[in-house]
Write a structure and sequence with these properties.
By secondary structure, the chain is α/β, with parallel strands linked by helices. The chain contains 18 helices and twelve strands. Helix content is about 55%, strand content about 10%.
């Protein structure tokens, strides 16, 4: 469709795409149950279905099971594209309706193709404003009609383009399912491309994939998404594509909980009752009290439903940091719910001249990382696209409300477990960044993770310890850092009055020395807030990253290498 007509726009219901998306997800859930049945047939019952005929039957039905699973994935991914399409088409339709309303409010006549004709005669007021000249007033009306025609037809073209883009995206989601499924070799099989990855260097993995034909790379993404999406050394575009499949699979896995029989859900509610007599009474009550029964089922489904909704946001497009009217796909570089790993790239790496990696702190969670991603997008927008930023969740972070959270953050094990992963990821970042400078930001507990990673051999051009808990586990002197870049530049920032100062540099403390006092580390000024007040106090702990203040611009200057605007304390 190049340009819809006005009549079509008036009856168009973009929300129908959302309704269709819900139906596709429901269909995927039902189809998944059928795939499970086929899997059971393939597995067979020991001692019942054996012999060469049984083996041949299982071999023949294998591709059917694989095809069913691929269709389940396609339905989930197509549903995500349909929801995005509904959002974009809806906004484009609203723009058409807004221009149409303006034209009709001005008594213009509008043709179905968007051509706007001026009113038959100018109003007395317009004639008076035109010096009493009827012809001059008619000329003004003609000019206005031409403006409205241009605006309306442009909005119609944009709506048609949005519709066409949505169709292409939905078709692409289903194309993968319609392709002939190839047999997936087990990890230990000879010739399996990923079997040796745990023992290979990242350069070797990258070289192996570079030597593959494009079709083989695509098969690798489709058949081994968990490995491709979470392995350093794999090109990022392949990781991003694989993680869309991983997220779709996570949605399907979570739907198993939602689609469990009601009796299974009720047994789960009873299982939490320790006393056998109480469990028996509860079981009986659940079967006679419909309100309690519904409440038990709802409680069982609540967490799974919340997780599905969260995963759907990871598949949804987001506003471009540089153009809020344009939506772009999310770029997930790692997705591993079991390990609580979620790594996301914001910005256009092809355009950016610098790259940053943000390591957040206390109370960062796998399914609560939206604030960190928003921080990354603000930096991308503030740079005008000159930088891209990665929000790095490489595992579990300390969590809990105060003071329990602070007590949990005193545990160095989180940093010790995540730092080696960050070191390995930094090698991959260096490869993907090329000549672009890379800056690592360690905020709060993330400062301890970052410093520990430097101890273990991180690769960075610049590091910034932002309101950091410390310089790293076991780091008491600059010689304890072993950054693989000997020319690395180090900065720190701690706002006056930030309570984090109470734990920085405690003798024999869990997070090492105070980075603000380490020789060779340049201390960045925090300056003033947008209100003109000093950037200080407890709220400054996070505000230095979130409010576009002097502190925020100082950090941005470090990332982009804008030496003229970097402000350090004397």
């Amino acid at each position: 469709m190049t340009r819809p007509g006005i009549a079509q726009v008036l009856i168009w219901r973009p929300e129908a795409l959302t309704e269709l998306a819900d139906e596709w997800v429901s269909a995927a859930s039902r189809l998944q149950a059928q795939a499970a049945t086929v899997d059971d047939v393939i597995a067979g019952t020991p001692g019942v279905f054996t012999g060469s005929a049984a083996g041949a039957a299982r071999h023949a039905i294998g591709p059917t099971a694989a095809g069913l699973r691929r269709m389940c994935q396609a339905l989930i991914l197509a549903a995500a594209e349909a929801r995005d399409g509904a959002e974009v088409i809806g906004r484009a339709r609203n723009r058409v309706l807004a221009v149409l309303a303006d034209a009709r409010d001005e008594d213009c006549q509008v043709a179905d193709d968007g051509t706007v004709r001026p009113p038959p005669a100018p109003s007395p007021l317009l004639v008076a404003c035109s010096g009493g000249s009827d012809s001059a007033a008619r000329e003004l009306l003609a000019v206005r009609a031409a403006e409205l025609t241009s605006a309306l037809q442009g909005a119609l073209r944009a709506l048609g383009a949005a519709d066409a883009d949505a169709a292409v995206a939905i078709d692409a989601a289903f194309d993968a399912a319609s392709a002939e499924p190839a047999a997936v070799r087990p990890a230990a099989a000879a010739g399996d491309p990923v079997a040796d990855w745990p023992r290979m260097s990242q350069d070797s993995i990258a070289a192996q994939i570079a030597a593959m034909p494009q079709a083989e790379r695509q098969r690798l993404v489709e058949q081994r998404p968990a490995d491709v999406g979470n392995t350093d050394g794999v090109p990022w575009q392949l990781r991003i594509a694989a993680n869309r499949i991983n997220i779709a699979n996570a949605i399907l896995d979570t739907h198993r909980t939602l689609d469990a029989p009601e009796e299974v859900k009720l047994r789960a509610a009873v299982a939490s009752t320790l006393d056998p007599a109480d469990a028996e009474r509860l079981w009986a009550t659940l079967h006679v009290d419909p309100v309690l029964r519904a409440a038990a089922i709802s409680a069982h489904d609540h967490e799974a439903q919340r997780r599905v909704e969260y995963y759907q946001t990871l598949l949804a497009d987001v506003p471009d940091p540089l153009d809020r009217d344009r939506r772009v796909p999310r770029q997930i570089l790692a997705f591993d719910p079991d390990r609580q790993s979620l790594i996301e790239l914001s910005g256009d790496l092809g355009r950016a001249r610098a790259l940053a990696v943000l390591v957040p702190g206390l109370n960062t969670t796998f399914d609560g990382s939206a604030d960190d991603v928003a921080t990354a997008r603000r930096f991308v927008a503030g740079s005008g696209g000159d930088m891209a930023m990665i929000s790095y969740l490489g595992g579990r972070f300390p969590t809990g409300p105060l003071p329990a959270g602070v007590a949990d953050a005193a545990d160095p094990r989180y940093a010790l477990q995540m730092a080696p992963r960050l070191v390995a990821f930094s090698e991959d970042v260096e490869r993907q960044a090329g000549t672009r400078p890379v800056t690592y930001l360690g905020h709060s507990y993330g400062g301890s993770i970052l410093g520990t990673a430097e101890n273990f051999g991180l690769t960075a051009d610049r590091v910034v310890y932002v309101e950091a808990a410390g310089a790293g586990v076991g780091v008491h002197d600059p010689s304890d850092w072993h950054n693989r870049n000997p020319a690395v530049m180090r900065f720190s920032m701690t706002a006056p009055g930030d309570p984090i100062a109470l734990v920085q540099g405690i003798p024999f403390g869990p997070h090492g020395a105070d980075p603000d006092l380490m020789p060779g580390v340049l201390q960045l000024e925090t300056g003033r807030r947008l209100t003109g007040a000093p950037m200080a106090g407890p709220s400054a702990h996070s505000d230095v990253l979130n409010e576009p203040s002097d502190a925020w611009h100082n950090i941005l200057a470090v990332i982009t290498g804008d030496r003229e605007h970097i402000r350090v304390t004397e």
